[in-house]
Every structure is written in structure tokens, then in C-alpha cells.
Amino acid sequence: MATATMTVQSLKPYFPWITLVILVSVVGLLNPAFLKPNSLIVLIADIVPLFIMALGMTFAIYIGGIDLSVQQIANFVTVIATVFLLQFGIFVAVLCIITGFVIGAISGWITTKQYVPSFVATLAMGFIALSLARFLSGERALSMNAEARDATFGWIFERTVGVPNELIIAATLLLLVWFLQNHTTFGRALKAVGAGELAAVASGLNVDRIKILAFALSGTMAAVAGLMFSAKLSGGDANLANGFLILAIVAVLVGGTPLTGGVGGMMNTLAGTLIVVVIRSAMIYLEINAIMQQMVFGVILIVAIALTIDRSKIRIVK
Question: What is the per-residue pLDDT for 318?
């Protein structure tokens, strides 16, 4: 019995990848066209903004928090990119990224300095971002100038040696955040905070600064996702990225980074995002309507939390 338990524990880090292989096999049996290389490449390229948003969410969840503002940051950025593209050209990307960084940093500051739980602080900042997006857009959908969009962001949707540039961008960002997590002092500090905040404080870490930067990075990645949404759809809207918040959270949790923090990380989020896209593809193939899809992901979210959460960090009062 003990040996079986040890075997399960040793395999636990690989559960997301095992799950992914099983799901791909099942969907491939249901729809053989799904396994065609070109189909897979197009499918994966299509969810790059979601993946980037989930990478940012990983920073917040890895330290034991959560960022509910990412969807609204992405929406706000689509409006900023559309409104200011002609005025700033490629530098509108810098404006968008700074916007995401600042909103995320403010969320982190509210959480650490004002002792407001992260889900409340980030939800409030999300409402502020939504209001700003509606004000800037005049509460209507905006279209980008086609020539300016093609000249500035058209390269994102081209291919290099047959590989979509969207995938190259995603891979580059994944390598950067993976290196940050696993090979820097900041990454080790993130893990320490997630594993036990009080112990991190006792060891001399500046926990407040680490948490603020984690939320700032989450906002930054949400801004990059929003910028890609805007360029891909050639416009901006205060509702353009709606529906992606729950998918980003599911991707992180299903990938094996629990809400209690301290374990998992960026590569886990890659597995989780691929699991999400395979499940979505299966539901589309099975003609499950959009409302039911949200219900399915809601159930998956509950199951993911139940399976990954570290109960030793939770004090149960009876």
C-alpha cells in the first residue's frame, strides 16, 4: 500500500501531461482530422493570447494569490491599442505594456500594503479597467486603421520557416518566464513566498516587493495578450476578451499550480492550456453549445481546485 502511494506521489508532477496525452488520444479517435499537424498548429496558434494571459496568472497563483483583473486589463489594452495606434505606431505596444504593469502593480500594492485580499483587490482593479475601457471607447466597438495595423502588427500573423510567428512569440515568452522562475533569485523568492509567506518573512525576504512585482508581471502578460487580441481582430472593445478569465484560471490550476501556491509553475501552465484547448475542441466537435461549455469549465475548475489545493496550509475551524 505504501509503495502504491509513493508511486502515485512520484507520478503526480506528470499528471497534467499524462492527462493531455489521454485527451489528445480520445479526441483523435473521435475526430482523426484533429491530429493532422497543420490542424494542430492552427489550433495552438489560435490560443496564444489565452496562453500568455495564463502565464501571467501563474505568477499570482504561484505566490498563493489570484488575479481577477487580467481579462479587463486585456479588454482595456485592446481599446488603447486601437485608439492610439495611428498616433504612436509601434510604440503603442509600450504604452499597452506599461498600462498592464501599472494596473498589476497597484493591485499588488493594495494587497500587500492595505491588506486587502488579492481576489478583492484585483476584482476592483478589473472594474476600474473596464470603466476606463468603456470611457475611452465611447462604449462602442472600435476598428483599427487597416494600413496602420498591417504595417505595425501584421508580422505577428506571418510565418517563419513555416512556423506561425504567434507560436514563436509564445515560446519566447515561455522561455523567459521559465528562466525567471527557475534560474533567478526572484524566482526562488516567488517559490518561498508561495510555500510559506511567514517563513519567507522570517528568512529576510522583502515579501511585499516580491508580491507587488508578481502582480505587476501578471498585468503585463495580460496586456500582451490584449495587444495580440486587438491586432488579431483588428479592433478594440471593452468586452473583446470576455470569457477568457475562467479559461486562464482553469489552465493554471489544471496544469498543477494550486491556489495555495509554492508548487507548479510555467511549464505546468503550458500543459494546462493545451488541456483546455483540447477539451474546447472536443466540445465544439461534439456540438456542445457555449453555455454548456462554460458549465463544463466551471466543473473542471472545482475539480482542479479540489485535487491540487494543499490542505495543510488551510486551518479548519469547527
Answer: 36
Among 67, 18, 34, residue whose Cα is nearest residue 211: 67
C-alpha distances (whole Å) from 152 to each of 91, 93, 258 are: 9, 10, 38
Residue 64 neighbours by CB distance under 10 Å: 21
How far apart are the C-alpha atoms of 4 and 2, rounded to whole Å?
5
The beta strand positions in the chain, using DSSP E, are 142-143, 159-160, 163-164, 235-236
Q: Which amino acid does the sequence have at 7?
A: T
pLDDT at res. 294:
79
Whole-number Cα distances in Å, 80 to 99, 101, 286: 9, 14, 37
The average confidence (pLDDT) of the chain is 90
Does residue 176 carry a pLDDT above 60? yes
b/e burial code for range 243-256 (CB count within 10 A of at least 16 → b): ebbebbbbbbbbbb
Is the confidence at residue 162, as pLDDT, over 90? no
Structure confidence by residue, pLDDT tens digits, 190-220: 999 999 999 999 999 999 999 999 999 999 9
All domains of the chain in start order, with CATH: 38-301 (1.10.3470)
Query: Cell for 231?
Result: 491586432
Rounded CA separation 166/164 (Å): 5
